[in-house]
Design brief:
mainly alpha, about 90 residues, 5 helices, about 70% helix
């Protein structure tokens, strides 16, 4: 009976565990070296990155949100997104 409870508890934890990232630690280390505008995009995007994410679309949407929210200028958005992309790719 104890073993069945342990097994079902373990199965529940696995079923509700957050998705694992390919290499989140490496992605975070990469992001630490980014300029501040690129870090904004990285921080806004990282929580939405999954193995099946379309990164260009995801990054574009997050950068657009930051521009519309007044946190990032239009001129800075594209180079910042290009800089954040490789770090986000490591997390995919």
């Amino acid at each position: 009976m104890r073993y069945m409870l342990l097994l079902s508890t373990t199965a529940a934890v696995v079923a509700f565990a957050p998705p694992s990232f390919a290499d989140r630690a490496a992605a975070d280390a990469c992001a630490a070296k980014l300029p501040s505008d690129a870090k904004l995009i990285y921080t806004a995007s990282i929580g939405s990155v999954t193995p099946s994410s379309n990164l260009p679309d995801l990054i574009r949407a997050k950068a657009r949100d930051l521009v519309m929210g007044g946190k990032l200028s239009r001129d800075a958005a594209q180079p910042a997104a290009q800089a954040a992309g490789p770090c986000l790719k490591q997390a995919q």
